[in-house]
Amino acid sequence: MMSHENYDPCFPDQPVVDLYIPVWANLPAFRSKPAFIWANDAGPTSYSSLTYGELNSSIHIISCKLLSSLKKTDTVVVLCSPGLELVEIIFGCQRAGLLSVPIVPPHPSFSNENYHHLIRVLSQTNPKAAIAHSSYIAKVQKYLSSPSHNKRLAELLKGLHWIPTDALKRAEPKDLKLVKSGGSYDGCKADEVYLIQYTSGATAIPKPVLVTAGSAAHNVRVARKAYDLHPQSMIVSWLPQYHDCGLMFLLLTVVSGATSVLTSPTTFVTRPRIWLELITEFRATCTPVPSFALPLAVKRGGVNEGMSSINLSGMKNLIIINEPIYKASIDEFLVWFTPFGLNPSSISPSYGLAENCTFVSTAWRASFPDGLPSHKKLLPSARLANSYAQDYEEEEIDIMVVDEESHEPVEDGVEGEIWVSSPSNASGYLGHPSLTREVFHGRLRNRVGRCFVRTGDRGVVIGEERYLYVMGRSSDIIRTEKGQEIHPHYIETSAYNCSSNLLRGGCLAAFKIGRTIALVAEMRRHESDVSVLRRLCENIREVLEQEKVEIDLVVLVKSGSVPKTTSGKIQRWAAKSYLMEGKMRIIMKMEFGIYGNVSSSSMPRIGSDDKRGAVDGEKKAVLSFASNAQARPSLLSLL
Asked: Where is the AMP-dependent synthetase/ligase domain positioned along the sequence (predicted)?
Protein backbone atom coordinates (compact mmCIF):
# COMPACT_ATOMS: atom_id res chain seq x y z
CA MET A 1 0.00 0.00 0.00
CA MET A 2 1.37 3.37 -1.00
CA SER A 3 2.19 5.67 1.88
CA HIS A 4 0.71 9.13 1.86
CA GLU A 5 2.64 10.48 4.83
CA ASN A 6 3.85 13.44 2.76
CA TYR A 7 0.44 14.09 1.26
CA ASP A 8 -1.04 17.41 2.28
CA PRO A 9 -4.88 17.16 2.02
CA CYS A 10 -4.93 20.78 0.85
CA PHE A 11 -2.45 20.08 -1.96
CA PRO A 12 -2.62 20.19 -4.87
CA ASP A 13 -5.24 22.93 -4.81
CA GLN A 14 -6.13 23.45 -8.46
CA PRO A 15 -8.84 25.75 -9.89
CA VAL A 16 -10.33 22.97 -12.09
CA VAL A 17 -10.37 19.21 -11.62
CA ASP A 18 -8.60 18.39 -14.89
CA LEU A 19 -5.46 20.16 -13.65
CA TYR A 20 -5.04 17.56 -10.90
CA ILE A 21 -4.49 14.80 -13.45
CA PRO A 22 -1.13 15.95 -14.88
CA VAL A 23 0.07 16.69 -11.34
CA TRP A 24 -0.50 13.07 -10.32
CA ALA A 25 0.72 11.73 -13.67
CA ASN A 26 4.07 13.50 -13.24
CA LEU A 27 4.69 12.11 -9.74
CA PRO A 28 6.55 8.76 -9.84
CA ALA A 29 4.43 7.31 -7.03
CA PHE A 30 1.20 8.04 -8.92
CA ARG A 31 2.14 7.62 -12.58
CA SER A 32 1.54 3.85 -12.58
CA LYS A 33 -1.16 3.90 -9.89
CA PRO A 34 -4.68 2.96 -11.12
CA ALA A 35 -7.02 5.92 -11.14
CA PHE A 36 -10.02 3.92 -12.38
CA ILE A 37 -10.71 0.19 -12.58
CA TRP A 38 -13.67 -1.17 -14.54
CA ALA A 39 -15.30 -4.40 -13.36
CA ASN A 40 -17.59 -6.52 -15.50
CA ASP A 41 -19.68 -9.26 -13.95
CA ALA A 42 -17.47 -12.02 -15.35
CA GLY A 43 -14.98 -12.78 -12.60
CA PRO A 44 -11.56 -11.43 -11.59
CA THR A 45 -10.08 -11.62 -15.10
CA SER A 46 -12.60 -9.11 -16.46
CA TYR A 47 -11.02 -6.06 -14.83
CA SER A 48 -9.45 -3.29 -16.89
CA SER A 49 -7.75 -0.20 -15.53
CA LEU A 50 -6.44 3.28 -16.29
CA THR A 51 -3.40 4.55 -14.43
CA TYR A 52 -2.99 8.25 -13.78
CA GLY A 53 -0.28 8.34 -16.44
CA GLU A 54 -2.48 6.57 -18.99
CA LEU A 55 -5.47 8.74 -18.12
CA ASN A 56 -3.48 11.93 -18.65
CA SER A 57 -2.14 10.75 -22.03
CA SER A 58 -5.53 9.52 -23.19
CA ILE A 59 -7.26 12.76 -22.22
CA HIS A 60 -4.64 14.74 -24.13
CA ILE A 61 -5.13 12.65 -27.28
CA ILE A 62 -8.93 12.89 -27.05
CA SER A 63 -8.89 16.66 -26.51
CA CYS A 64 -6.59 17.20 -29.51
CA LYS A 65 -8.73 14.97 -31.73
CA LEU A 66 -11.89 16.78 -30.67
CA LEU A 67 -10.38 20.16 -31.47
CA SER A 68 -9.49 18.97 -34.96
CA SER A 69 -13.21 19.17 -35.86
CA LEU A 70 -14.64 21.41 -33.14
CA LYS A 71 -13.68 24.67 -31.50
CA LYS A 72 -13.54 25.67 -27.84
CA THR A 73 -16.88 26.36 -26.13
CA ASP A 74 -18.79 24.16 -28.61
CA THR A 75 -21.44 21.97 -27.01
CA VAL A 76 -21.19 18.21 -27.46
CA VAL A 77 -23.63 15.52 -26.30
CA VAL A 78 -21.98 12.33 -25.02
CA LEU A 79 -23.94 9.13 -25.77
CA CYS A 80 -21.64 6.45 -24.35
CA SER A 81 -22.33 3.43 -22.18
CA PRO A 82 -20.79 3.39 -18.68
CA GLY A 83 -17.12 2.43 -18.66
CA LEU A 84 -13.56 3.73 -18.73
CA GLU A 85 -14.12 5.18 -22.19
CA LEU A 86 -16.87 7.42 -20.86
CA VAL A 87 -14.55 8.56 -18.05
CA GLU A 88 -11.83 9.49 -20.55
CA ILE A 89 -14.27 11.38 -22.79
CA ILE A 90 -15.77 13.40 -19.92
CA PHE A 91 -12.30 14.60 -18.90
CA GLY A 92 -11.20 14.93 -22.54
CA CYS A 93 -14.05 17.35 -23.27
CA GLN A 94 -13.05 19.52 -20.32
CA ARG A 95 -9.42 19.65 -21.45
CA ALA A 96 -10.55 20.57 -24.96
CA GLY A 97 -12.61 23.45 -23.53
CA LEU A 98 -15.88 21.97 -24.75
CA LEU A 99 -19.24 22.08 -22.98
CA SER A 100 -20.25 18.43 -22.54
CA VAL A 101 -23.73 16.99 -21.98
CA PRO A 102 -23.36 13.35 -20.92
CA ILE A 103 -26.67 11.45 -20.87
CA VAL A 104 -27.86 7.86 -20.77
CA PRO A 105 -27.86 6.77 -24.43
CA PRO A 106 -31.32 5.49 -25.43
CA HIS A 107 -31.40 2.30 -27.47
CA PRO A 108 -30.72 3.40 -31.08
CA SER A 109 -33.85 1.65 -32.33
CA PHE A 110 -35.72 4.42 -30.43
CA SER A 111 -38.63 2.06 -29.88
CA ASN A 112 -41.21 2.31 -27.10
CA GLU A 113 -40.87 6.10 -27.24
CA ASN A 114 -37.56 5.98 -25.33
CA TYR A 115 -36.32 9.10 -27.10
CA HIS A 116 -38.23 11.84 -25.28
CA HIS A 117 -35.33 12.87 -23.05
CA LEU A 118 -32.93 12.83 -26.01
CA ILE A 119 -35.22 15.18 -27.95
CA ARG A 120 -35.36 17.43 -24.88
CA VAL A 121 -31.57 17.48 -24.55
CA LEU A 122 -30.88 18.13 -28.23
CA SER A 123 -33.54 20.84 -28.42
CA GLN A 124 -32.41 22.66 -25.28
CA THR A 125 -28.61 22.42 -25.56
CA ASN A 126 -28.27 22.70 -29.36
CA PRO A 127 -25.03 20.64 -29.54
CA LYS A 128 -22.67 20.84 -32.50
CA ALA A 129 -21.65 17.18 -32.22
CA ALA A 130 -22.45 13.85 -30.62
CA ILE A 131 -19.86 11.37 -29.35
CA ALA A 132 -20.80 7.68 -29.47
CA HIS A 133 -19.35 4.28 -30.30
CA SER A 134 -19.18 3.56 -34.04
CA SER A 135 -21.68 0.69 -33.71
CA TYR A 136 -24.17 3.02 -32.02
CA ILE A 137 -23.71 5.61 -34.77
CA ALA A 138 -24.33 2.95 -37.42
CA LYS A 139 -27.61 1.99 -35.77
CA VAL A 140 -28.65 5.64 -35.58
CA GLN A 141 -27.99 6.00 -39.29
CA LYS A 142 -30.07 2.89 -39.92
CA TYR A 143 -32.90 4.41 -37.89
CA LEU A 144 -32.69 7.63 -39.89
CA SER A 145 -33.12 5.67 -43.12
CA SER A 146 -36.24 4.00 -41.78
CA PRO A 147 -39.55 5.45 -43.01
CA SER A 148 -41.08 5.01 -39.56
CA HIS A 149 -38.71 7.35 -37.74
CA ASN A 150 -39.92 10.20 -35.57
CA LYS A 151 -39.62 13.34 -37.70
CA ARG A 152 -38.59 15.69 -34.89
CA LEU A 153 -35.94 13.29 -33.57
CA ALA A 154 -34.63 12.59 -37.08
CA GLU A 155 -34.28 16.31 -37.78
CA LEU A 156 -32.22 16.80 -34.61
CA LEU A 157 -30.03 13.75 -35.19
CA LYS A 158 -29.27 14.71 -38.79
CA GLY A 159 -28.05 18.11 -37.66
CA LEU A 160 -25.28 16.59 -35.52
CA HIS A 161 -21.66 15.97 -36.41
CA TRP A 162 -21.13 12.38 -35.24
CA ILE A 163 -17.76 11.51 -33.69
CA PRO A 164 -16.94 7.81 -33.09
CA THR A 165 -15.16 7.07 -29.82
CA ASP A 166 -12.74 4.60 -31.37
CA ALA A 167 -11.41 7.33 -33.70
CA LEU A 168 -10.85 9.69 -30.75
CA LYS A 169 -8.39 7.34 -29.08
CA ARG A 170 -6.18 6.74 -32.13
CA ALA A 171 -3.11 8.92 -31.78
CA GLU A 172 -1.95 10.57 -34.99
CA PRO A 173 1.07 12.92 -35.03
CA LYS A 174 -0.76 15.57 -37.06
CA ASP A 175 -3.48 15.82 -34.40
CA LEU A 176 -1.19 16.03 -31.38
CA LYS A 177 0.30 19.23 -30.05
CA LEU A 178 2.97 18.64 -27.44
CA VAL A 179 2.22 20.36 -24.15
CA LYS A 180 5.02 22.71 -23.18
CA SER A 181 6.30 22.33 -19.66
CA GLY A 182 4.82 25.12 -17.58
CA GLY A 183 2.62 26.28 -20.44
CA SER A 184 -0.78 27.85 -19.88
CA TYR A 185 -3.83 25.64 -19.53
CA ASP A 186 -6.10 25.77 -22.57
CA GLY A 187 -9.02 23.76 -21.22
CA CYS A 188 -12.13 25.00 -19.42
CA LYS A 189 -11.32 27.81 -17.01
CA ALA A 190 -12.82 28.00 -13.53
CA ASP A 191 -15.47 30.56 -14.51
CA GLU A 192 -16.49 28.77 -17.72
CA VAL A 193 -19.45 26.39 -17.99
CA TYR A 194 -17.99 22.99 -18.80
CA LEU A 195 -20.95 20.70 -18.07
CA ILE A 196 -24.70 20.60 -18.45
CA GLN A 197 -26.12 18.05 -16.05
CA TYR A 198 -29.82 17.36 -15.95
CA THR A 199 -31.75 17.16 -12.72
CA SER A 200 -32.94 13.67 -11.87
CA GLY A 201 -36.59 14.32 -12.71
CA ALA A 202 -37.81 13.21 -9.28
CA THR A 203 -40.17 16.17 -8.89
CA ALA A 204 -40.60 17.52 -12.43
CA ILE A 205 -39.37 17.18 -16.00
CA PRO A 206 -35.52 17.13 -15.90
CA LYS A 207 -33.95 20.58 -16.22
CA PRO A 208 -30.49 21.45 -17.64
CA VAL A 209 -28.17 22.77 -14.91
CA LEU A 210 -25.16 24.88 -15.96
CA VAL A 211 -22.03 23.87 -14.02
CA THR A 212 -18.79 25.83 -14.17
CA ALA A 213 -15.45 24.05 -13.89
CA GLY A 214 -14.62 26.07 -10.78
CA SER A 215 -17.83 25.26 -8.91
CA ALA A 216 -17.33 21.55 -9.64
CA ALA A 217 -13.75 21.69 -8.33
CA HIS A 218 -14.92 23.47 -5.18
CA ASN A 219 -17.66 20.91 -4.65
CA VAL A 220 -15.38 17.89 -4.73
CA ARG A 221 -12.77 19.60 -2.56
CA VAL A 222 -15.46 20.13 0.09
CA ALA A 223 -16.56 16.49 -0.26
CA ARG A 224 -12.95 15.26 -0.04
CA LYS A 225 -12.51 17.01 3.31
CA ALA A 226 -15.95 15.99 4.58
CA TYR A 227 -15.27 12.28 3.94
CA ASP A 228 -11.53 12.48 4.74
CA LEU A 229 -10.49 11.01 1.39
CA HIS A 230 -6.84 10.74 0.36
CA PRO A 231 -4.55 8.76 -1.99
CA GLN A 232 -4.99 5.56 0.01
CA SER A 233 -8.77 5.72 -0.32
CA MET A 234 -10.34 2.99 -2.44
CA ILE A 235 -13.78 3.81 -3.82
CA VAL A 236 -16.35 1.38 -5.24
CA SER A 237 -19.25 2.80 -7.26
CA TRP A 238 -21.95 1.42 -9.58
CA LEU A 239 -23.81 4.73 -9.86
CA PRO A 240 -24.56 6.17 -13.32
CA GLN A 241 -21.57 8.25 -14.47
CA TYR A 242 -23.62 10.83 -16.37
CA HIS A 243 -24.59 13.24 -13.61
CA ASP A 244 -24.95 13.92 -9.90
CA CYS A 245 -23.22 11.57 -7.48
CA GLY A 246 -21.91 9.11 -10.07
CA LEU A 247 -20.16 11.89 -11.97
CA MET A 248 -19.02 13.65 -8.80
CA PHE A 249 -17.18 10.55 -7.63
CA LEU A 250 -15.16 10.52 -10.86
CA LEU A 251 -14.02 14.05 -10.05
CA LEU A 252 -13.63 13.26 -6.35
CA THR A 253 -11.33 10.34 -7.18
CA VAL A 254 -9.00 12.59 -9.18
CA VAL A 255 -8.97 15.40 -6.61
CA SER A 256 -8.10 12.91 -3.85
CA GLY A 257 -5.49 10.99 -5.84
CA ALA A 258 -7.50 7.89 -4.95
CA THR A 259 -8.58 4.81 -6.95
CA SER A 260 -12.16 4.07 -8.01
CA VAL A 261 -13.49 0.65 -8.93
CA LEU A 262 -16.48 1.14 -11.22
CA THR A 263 -19.22 -1.06 -12.60
CA SER A 264 -22.54 -0.30 -14.29
CA PRO A 265 -25.95 0.17 -12.65
CA THR A 266 -27.41 -2.66 -14.74
CA THR A 267 -24.68 -5.01 -13.50
CA PHE A 268 -25.62 -4.17 -9.92
CA VAL A 269 -29.34 -4.55 -10.62
CA THR A 270 -28.74 -7.95 -12.22
CA ARG A 271 -26.50 -9.19 -9.41
CA PRO A 272 -26.36 -6.96 -6.30
CA ARG A 273 -23.75 -9.23 -4.71
CA ILE A 274 -21.09 -7.82 -7.07
CA TRP A 275 -21.12 -4.62 -5.01
CA LEU A 276 -20.18 -6.57 -1.87
CA GLU A 277 -17.61 -8.63 -3.76
CA LEU A 278 -15.85 -5.54 -5.13
CA ILE A 279 -15.74 -3.94 -1.68
CA THR A 280 -14.17 -7.15 -0.38
CA GLU A 281 -11.69 -7.79 -3.18
CA PHE A 282 -10.36 -4.23 -3.36
CA ARG A 283 -10.57 -3.53 0.37
CA ALA A 284 -12.76 -0.52 -0.40
CA THR A 285 -12.86 2.30 2.12
CA CYS A 286 -15.68 4.33 0.52
CA THR A 287 -18.82 3.56 -1.47
CA PRO A 288 -21.81 5.79 -2.37
CA VAL A 289 -25.24 4.16 -2.73
CA PRO A 290 -28.90 5.20 -2.72
CA SER A 291 -30.68 3.99 0.41
CA PHE A 292 -32.84 1.56 -1.59
CA ALA A 293 -29.68 -0.45 -2.41
CA LEU A 294 -29.34 -1.58 1.21
CA PRO A 295 -32.49 -3.76 1.45
CA LEU A 296 -31.73 -5.00 -2.05
CA ALA A 297 -28.32 -6.20 -0.89
CA VAL A 298 -29.94 -7.91 2.09
CA LYS A 299 -32.51 -9.72 -0.07
CA ARG A 300 -30.44 -10.48 -3.17
CA GLY A 301 -26.85 -10.06 -2.02
CA GLY A 302 -26.29 -13.72 -1.29
CA VAL A 303 -26.61 -13.36 2.48
CA ASN A 304 -28.10 -16.84 2.80
CA GLU A 305 -25.82 -18.41 0.22
CA GLY A 306 -22.63 -18.53 2.24
CA MET A 307 -20.81 -15.24 2.60
CA SER A 308 -17.47 -16.36 4.02
CA SER A 309 -15.73 -14.42 1.24
CA ILE A 310 -17.41 -11.10 2.06
CA ASN A 311 -15.33 -8.73 4.16
CA LEU A 312 -16.51 -5.15 4.77
CA SER A 313 -14.08 -4.32 7.57
CA GLY A 314 -12.16 -1.76 5.50
CA MET A 315 -15.22 0.41 4.94
CA LYS A 316 -14.85 3.92 6.36
CA ASN A 317 -17.63 5.72 4.47
CA LEU A 318 -20.79 3.92 3.40
CA ILE A 319 -22.34 7.03 1.90
CA ILE A 320 -26.14 7.11 1.66
CA ILE A 321 -26.85 9.63 -1.05
CA ASN A 322 -30.61 10.06 -1.40
CA GLU A 323 -33.22 11.25 0.99
CA PRO A 324 -35.21 10.52 3.05
CA ILE A 325 -32.93 8.09 4.89
CA TYR A 326 -34.88 5.69 7.09
CA LYS A 327 -33.13 4.50 10.24
CA ALA A 328 -34.89 1.11 10.03
CA SER A 329 -33.31 0.21 6.67
CA ILE A 330 -29.87 1.18 7.98
CA ASP A 331 -30.40 -0.87 11.15
CA GLU A 332 -31.49 -3.90 9.11
CA PHE A 333 -28.40 -3.61 6.91
CA LEU A 334 -26.15 -3.38 9.96
CA VAL A 335 -27.75 -6.46 11.53
CA TRP A 336 -26.95 -8.49 8.42
CA PHE A 337 -23.49 -7.14 7.64
CA THR A 338 -21.89 -6.22 10.95
CA PRO A 339 -20.87 -9.92 11.29
CA PHE A 340 -18.91 -9.42 8.05
CA GLY A 341 -16.85 -6.59 9.49
CA LEU A 342 -19.01 -3.56 8.71
CA ASN A 343 -18.42 -0.83 11.30
CA PRO A 344 -21.65 1.03 12.20
CA SER A 345 -19.65 4.27 12.38
CA SER A 346 -19.01 4.04 8.62
CA ILE A 347 -22.64 4.95 7.84
CA SER A 348 -22.46 8.39 6.21
CA PRO A 349 -25.94 9.82 5.51
CA SER A 350 -25.50 12.69 3.06
CA TYR A 351 -27.40 15.31 1.13
CA GLY A 352 -26.89 16.82 -2.31
CA LEU A 353 -28.55 18.10 -5.47
CA ALA A 354 -27.59 18.98 -9.04
CA GLU A 355 -28.12 22.70 -8.45
CA ASN A 356 -25.13 22.64 -6.05
CA CYS A 357 -23.06 20.45 -8.41
CA THR A 358 -23.97 17.51 -6.15
CA PHE A 359 -22.56 17.44 -2.62
CA VAL A 360 -24.06 19.66 0.09
CA SER A 361 -23.40 17.94 3.41
CA THR A 362 -22.98 14.78 5.45
CA ALA A 363 -23.78 13.96 9.06
CA TRP A 364 -20.76 11.62 9.23
CA ARG A 365 -17.83 12.41 11.48
CA ALA A 366 -14.60 10.48 11.97
CA SER A 367 -15.91 9.49 15.40
CA PHE A 368 -19.27 9.88 17.04
CA PRO A 369 -19.37 7.72 20.17
CA ASP A 370 -23.12 7.81 20.68
CA GLY A 371 -24.02 7.09 17.06
CA LEU A 372 -26.37 9.15 14.94
CA PRO A 373 -29.72 10.26 16.37
CA SER A 374 -33.03 9.96 14.55
CA HIS A 375 -36.14 12.08 14.07
CA LYS A 376 -39.48 10.76 12.84
CA LYS A 377 -37.79 7.50 11.76
CA LEU A 378 -35.14 9.35 9.69
CA LEU A 379 -31.39 9.87 10.01
CA PRO A 380 -29.81 13.33 9.67
CA SER A 381 -27.89 14.47 6.60
CA ALA A 382 -25.88 17.31 8.15
CA ARG A 383 -24.83 18.81 11.44
CA LEU A 384 -25.10 22.58 11.70
CA ALA A 385 -23.49 23.03 15.13
CA ASN A 386 -20.71 25.60 15.61
CA SER A 387 -17.99 22.98 15.20
CA TYR A 388 -19.49 22.03 11.86
CA ALA A 389 -19.64 25.66 10.76
CA GLN A 390 -15.97 26.08 11.68
CA ASP A 391 -15.06 23.05 9.60
CA TYR A 392 -16.74 24.57 6.57
CA GLU A 393 -15.99 28.24 7.21
CA GLU A 394 -13.13 28.38 4.75
CA GLU A 395 -15.34 26.81 2.09
CA GLU A 396 -17.97 29.53 2.51
CA ILE A 397 -20.82 27.04 2.63
CA ASP A 398 -24.00 28.06 4.39
CA ILE A 399 -27.08 25.86 4.97
CA MET A 400 -30.26 27.36 6.35
CA VAL A 401 -33.87 26.28 6.89
CA VAL A 402 -36.18 29.04 5.70
CA ASP A 403 -39.90 29.75 5.71
CA GLU A 404 -41.03 29.35 2.09
CA GLU A 405 -43.47 32.26 2.24
CA SER A 406 -41.69 34.87 4.39
CA HIS A 407 -38.12 34.01 3.35
CA GLU A 408 -37.05 34.27 6.98
CA PRO A 409 -35.03 31.60 8.84
CA VAL A 410 -37.23 29.33 10.96
CA GLU A 411 -36.50 28.33 14.51
CA ASP A 412 -34.94 24.94 15.22
CA GLY A 413 -37.64 22.29 15.38
CA VAL A 414 -39.76 23.95 12.68
CA GLU A 415 -39.86 22.56 9.15
CA GLY A 416 -38.93 24.83 6.28
CA GLU A 417 -37.22 24.87 2.91
CA ILE A 418 -33.50 24.08 2.83
CA TRP A 419 -31.45 26.90 1.32
CA VAL A 420 -27.78 26.51 0.35
CA SER A 421 -25.20 29.20 -0.40
CA SER A 422 -21.81 28.03 -1.60
CA PRO A 423 -19.20 28.57 -4.34
CA SER A 424 -20.40 25.13 -5.48
CA ASN A 425 -23.75 26.59 -6.55
CA ALA A 426 -24.37 26.08 -10.25
CA SER A 427 -24.96 29.07 -12.57
CA GLY A 428 -28.62 28.36 -13.31
CA TYR A 429 -30.87 26.50 -15.72
CA LEU A 430 -30.16 26.72 -19.44
CA GLY A 431 -32.97 28.58 -21.20
CA HIS A 432 -34.99 29.21 -18.01
CA PRO A 433 -34.16 32.76 -16.85
CA SER A 434 -37.25 33.23 -14.66
CA LEU A 435 -36.80 29.87 -12.94
CA THR A 436 -33.08 30.59 -12.53
CA ARG A 437 -33.87 33.81 -10.67
CA GLU A 438 -36.42 32.05 -8.48
CA VAL A 439 -34.22 29.04 -7.58
CA PHE A 440 -30.63 30.35 -7.68
CA HIS A 441 -31.14 33.88 -6.35
CA GLY A 442 -32.97 33.30 -3.10
CA ARG A 443 -32.41 36.07 -0.57
CA LEU A 444 -33.30 36.23 3.10
CA ARG A 445 -35.87 38.89 3.91
CA ASN A 446 -34.48 42.23 5.10
CA ARG A 447 -30.90 40.98 4.85
CA VAL A 448 -28.16 42.08 2.49
CA GLY A 449 -25.83 39.29 1.57
CA ARG A 450 -25.20 36.24 -0.52
CA CYS A 451 -27.64 34.46 -2.79
CA PHE A 452 -28.98 31.04 -1.88
CA VAL A 453 -30.12 28.10 -3.96
CA ARG A 454 -33.67 27.22 -2.98
CA THR A 455 -33.52 23.42 -2.97
CA GLY A 456 -37.23 22.68 -2.90
CA ASP A 457 -36.51 20.20 -0.09
CA ARG A 458 -38.10 20.42 3.33
CA GLY A 459 -35.84 20.11 6.35
CA VAL A 460 -35.78 20.59 10.11
CA VAL A 461 -32.95 21.21 12.58
CA ILE A 462 -33.24 19.20 15.82
CA GLY A 463 -31.29 19.08 19.09
CA GLU A 464 -28.34 20.84 20.68
CA GLU A 465 -26.04 19.41 18.03
CA ARG A 466 -28.32 20.97 15.38
CA TYR A 467 -28.66 17.95 13.15
CA LEU A 468 -30.39 18.67 9.85
CA TYR A 469 -33.03 16.15 8.73
CA VAL A 470 -34.20 16.19 5.11
CA MET A 471 -37.90 15.40 5.46
CA GLY A 472 -39.00 15.31 1.82
CA ARG A 473 -39.74 17.52 -1.16
CA SER A 474 -41.98 20.55 -0.90
CA SER A 475 -43.77 19.82 -4.18
CA ASP A 476 -44.64 16.28 -3.05
CA ILE A 477 -46.31 17.27 0.23
CA ILE A 478 -49.90 16.05 0.56
CA ARG A 479 -52.15 18.57 2.30
CA THR A 480 -55.39 17.17 3.71
CA GLU A 481 -58.74 18.88 4.17
CA LYS A 482 -58.00 18.94 7.92
CA GLY A 483 -54.83 20.97 7.43
CA GLN A 484 -52.38 18.09 7.78
CA GLU A 485 -49.12 18.15 5.83
CA ILE A 486 -47.97 14.62 5.01
CA HIS A 487 -44.75 13.62 3.29
CA PRO A 488 -45.79 10.87 0.86
CA HIS A 489 -42.84 8.62 1.67
CA TYR A 490 -44.42 7.95 5.08
CA ILE A 491 -47.58 6.68 3.36
CA GLU A 492 -45.55 4.57 0.92
CA THR A 493 -43.33 3.08 3.63
CA SER A 494 -46.22 2.23 5.96
CA ALA A 495 -48.13 0.58 3.11
CA TYR A 496 -45.12 -1.47 2.05
CA ASN A 497 -44.26 -2.57 5.59
CA CYS A 498 -47.74 -4.00 6.11
CA SER A 499 -47.53 -6.17 2.96
CA SER A 500 -43.84 -6.54 2.06
CA ASN A 501 -44.45 -10.13 0.92
CA LEU A 502 -46.77 -8.91 -1.86
CA LEU A 503 -45.48 -5.43 -2.76
CA ARG A 504 -42.19 -4.32 -4.28
CA GLY A 505 -40.06 -2.14 -2.04
CA GLY A 506 -39.34 1.33 -3.38
CA CYS A 507 -42.07 0.95 -6.00
CA LEU A 508 -45.00 2.77 -4.37
CA ALA A 509 -46.16 6.32 -5.10
CA ALA A 510 -48.58 8.41 -3.04
CA PHE A 511 -50.03 11.68 -4.30
CA LYS A 512 -53.17 13.78 -4.34
CA ILE A 513 -55.59 14.18 -7.24
CA GLY A 514 -58.00 16.98 -6.45
CA ARG A 515 -59.20 16.07 -2.96
CA THR A 516 -58.41 12.37 -3.41
CA ILE A 517 -55.34 10.84 -1.73
CA ALA A 518 -54.17 8.01 -3.97
CA LEU A 519 -51.57 5.27 -3.59
CA VAL A 520 -50.17 3.28 -6.52
CA ALA A 521 -48.27 0.12 -5.56
CA GLU A 522 -46.44 -2.45 -7.67
CA MET A 523 -47.05 -6.13 -7.02
CA ARG A 524 -44.06 -8.48 -6.59
CA ARG A 525 -45.73 -11.25 -8.57
CA HIS A 526 -48.90 -11.96 -10.50
CA GLU A 527 -51.85 -12.57 -8.18
CA SER A 528 -55.19 -13.58 -9.71
CA ASP A 529 -57.10 -14.20 -6.47
CA VAL A 530 -59.40 -11.19 -6.17
CA SER A 531 -59.99 -11.82 -2.45
CA VAL A 532 -56.24 -11.60 -1.78
CA LEU A 533 -55.98 -8.35 -3.73
CA ARG A 534 -59.04 -6.90 -2.03
CA ARG A 535 -57.71 -7.79 1.41
CA LEU A 536 -54.35 -6.22 0.53
CA CYS A 537 -56.03 -2.92 -0.31
CA GLU A 538 -58.06 -3.04 2.89
CA ASN A 539 -54.94 -3.81 4.96
CA ILE A 540 -53.20 -0.81 3.49
CA ARG A 541 -56.13 1.42 4.35
CA GLU A 542 -56.34 0.06 7.92
CA VAL A 543 -52.64 0.56 8.58
CA LEU A 544 -52.73 4.11 7.23
CA GLU A 545 -55.78 4.89 9.37
CA GLN A 546 -53.69 3.91 12.39
CA GLU A 547 -51.18 6.51 11.18
CA LYS A 548 -54.09 9.00 10.98
CA VAL A 549 -54.02 9.12 7.19
CA GLU A 550 -57.28 8.63 5.28
CA ILE A 551 -56.48 7.02 1.95
CA ASP A 552 -59.15 7.36 -0.75
CA LEU A 553 -57.83 5.21 -3.59
CA VAL A 554 -55.47 2.21 -3.76
CA VAL A 555 -54.29 1.05 -7.18
CA LEU A 556 -52.33 -2.20 -7.54
CA VAL A 557 -50.24 -2.33 -10.70
CA LYS A 558 -47.86 -4.66 -12.50
CA SER A 559 -44.10 -4.60 -12.00
CA GLY A 560 -42.39 -1.75 -13.86
CA SER A 561 -45.44 0.52 -13.90
CA VAL A 562 -44.28 3.12 -11.36
CA PRO A 563 -41.87 5.56 -13.08
CA LYS A 564 -38.44 6.22 -11.56
CA THR A 565 -35.36 8.26 -12.25
CA THR A 566 -32.14 6.56 -13.40
CA SER A 567 -30.97 6.58 -9.77
CA GLY A 568 -34.14 4.84 -8.59
CA LYS A 569 -36.09 7.76 -7.13
CA ILE A 570 -39.87 7.60 -7.44
CA GLN A 571 -41.34 10.15 -9.86
CA ARG A 572 -44.65 10.83 -8.12
CA TRP A 573 -45.58 13.59 -10.53
CA ALA A 574 -45.14 11.18 -13.46
CA ALA A 575 -47.00 8.38 -11.65
CA LYS A 576 -49.93 10.74 -11.12
CA SER A 577 -49.87 11.73 -14.80
CA TYR A 578 -49.71 8.09 -15.97
CA LEU A 579 -52.63 7.15 -13.74
CA MET A 580 -54.82 10.00 -14.93
CA GLU A 581 -53.90 9.37 -18.59
CA GLY A 582 -54.61 5.63 -18.36
CA LYS A 583 -51.00 4.54 -18.78
CA MET A 584 -50.74 2.29 -15.71
CA ARG A 585 -50.92 -1.49 -16.06
CA ILE A 586 -53.61 -1.96 -13.45
CA ILE A 587 -54.32 -5.21 -11.62
CA MET A 588 -56.93 -3.82 -9.19
CA LYS A 589 -58.16 -0.49 -7.95
CA MET A 590 -60.18 0.11 -4.80
CA GLU A 591 -61.91 3.36 -3.95
CA PHE A 592 -62.92 4.24 -0.38
CA GLY A 593 -65.77 6.73 0.15
CA ILE A 594 -66.17 8.96 3.18
CA TYR A 595 -69.17 6.95 4.38
CA GLY A 596 -67.24 3.70 4.43
CA ASN A 597 -68.54 2.43 1.10
CA VAL A 598 -66.03 0.62 -1.06
CA SER A 599 -65.93 0.00 -4.79
CA SER A 600 -63.33 -2.29 -6.29
CA SER A 601 -62.52 -3.58 -9.72
CA SER A 602 -60.09 -6.27 -10.76
CA MET A 603 -58.22 -6.56 -14.00
CA PRO A 604 -60.60 -9.03 -15.72
CA ARG A 605 -63.47 -6.57 -15.30
CA ILE A 606 -61.70 -3.34 -16.26
CA GLY A 607 -62.09 -2.09 -19.80
CA SER A 608 -59.62 0.16 -21.58
CA ASP A 609 -61.82 3.16 -20.77
CA ASP A 610 -63.10 2.41 -17.29
CA LYS A 611 -64.20 5.64 -15.57
CA ARG A 612 -65.49 5.65 -12.03
CA GLY A 613 -65.93 8.38 -9.47
CA ALA A 614 -63.74 8.30 -6.36
CA VAL A 615 -65.97 9.92 -3.76
CA ASP A 616 -64.30 12.33 -1.35
CA GLY A 617 -66.66 14.64 0.52
CA GLU A 618 -68.98 16.35 -1.90
CA LYS A 619 -66.50 16.32 -4.77
CA LYS A 620 -65.92 13.53 -7.28
CA ALA A 621 -62.54 12.86 -8.89
CA VAL A 622 -63.03 11.06 -12.19
CA LEU A 623 -60.03 8.93 -13.14
CA SER A 624 -59.25 7.05 -16.35
CA PHE A 625 -57.49 3.70 -16.23
CA ALA A 626 -56.05 1.49 -18.95
CA SER A 627 -55.32 -2.11 -17.97
CA ASN A 628 -53.33 -2.91 -21.10
CA ALA A 629 -51.30 0.28 -21.52
CA GLN A 630 -47.54 0.07 -21.61
CA ALA A 631 -45.70 1.76 -18.76
CA ARG A 632 -42.36 3.45 -19.33
CA PRO A 633 -39.98 1.96 -16.77
CA SER A 634 -36.59 3.56 -16.10
CA LEU A 635 -33.17 1.93 -16.18
CA LEU A 636 -33.53 0.75 -12.60
CA SER A 637 -37.22 -0.18 -12.83
CA LEU A 638 -36.34 -3.76 -11.88
CA LEU A 639 -35.45 -2.65 -8.36
From this structure: 30-430
